[in-house]
Design goal:
Helix content is 43%, strand content 14%. It is of the alpha/beta class.
Length: 145
C-alpha cells in the first residue's frame, strides 16, 4: 500500500506558524522548493537554502537557536539521520537547543532515486541512539491540527 506524502501539508502548517512567529527561520537542504515556495515568497529573509550540506546546516541551526531564533531544518530523512547524526547529537541535543527537524522520504519513499535516498531505520536511530522525540504522521492519525 502506498502511503500518503504529507509535504504539502507541511508547507501549509509551516506557513501558518511563520505568519505568527517572527523568530521562526527555515533552513532547507536544497529540496522541497514547491513545498516552501509560499514561505520563501512571503518571508525571504527567514528562509535559507543551505544546499547539500546537512552537517553544516545542523550546525548553523544550532547557532541560530543559540542566538534566540527558532530554526526549522527541512531535508530528506536519510541525509539528516546518516550524514548529520553527530551534529544533531552534539550541537543540538546535548546542548538542549530548540531546533525542529522536518524530514521527508521516510519508509523508502524516494527508493526510485537509489539506495542513497533510502532510510527504513530513521526513527529507531534518532529515538534510541540520541533520545529525540519523533513524530511520524503515518503512525499518528491526526498529523496536523
Amino acid at each position: 500500500m502506498n502511503k500518503p506524502n504529507y509535504r504539502r501539508e507541511i508547507g501549509k502548517e509551516l506557513f501558518y506558524y511563520f505568519q505568527r512567529d517572527k523568530e521562526l527561520c527555515l533552513l532547507v537542504c536544497d529540496m522541497g522548493f514547491g513545498v516552501i515556495e509560499e514561505i520563501r515568497r512571503n518571508f525571504p529573509q527567514r528562509v535559507i537554502n543551505t544546499g547539500i550540506m546537512e552537517q553544516a546546516t545542523v550546525g548553523i541551526s544550532a547557532g541560530l537557536a543559540m542566538a534566540g531564533l527558532k530554526p526549522v531544518v527541512y531535508s530528506i530523512v536519510n541525509f539528516l539521520v546518516f550524514r548529520a547524526l553527530e551534529q544533531i547529537r552534539n550541537d543540538v541535543v546535548l546542548q538542549g537547543l530548540e531546533v525542529k527537524f522536518i524530514a521527508t522520504g521516510v519508509n523508502n519513499y524516494f527508493s526510485f532515486l537509489g539506495a542513497s535516498h533510502c532510510c527504513g531505520e530513521d526513527d529507531k536511530i534518532i529515538m534510541e541512539l540520541i533520545g529525540m522525540k519523533v513524530f511520524d504522521p503515518y503512525r499518528e492519525r491526526k498529523p496536523f491540527s
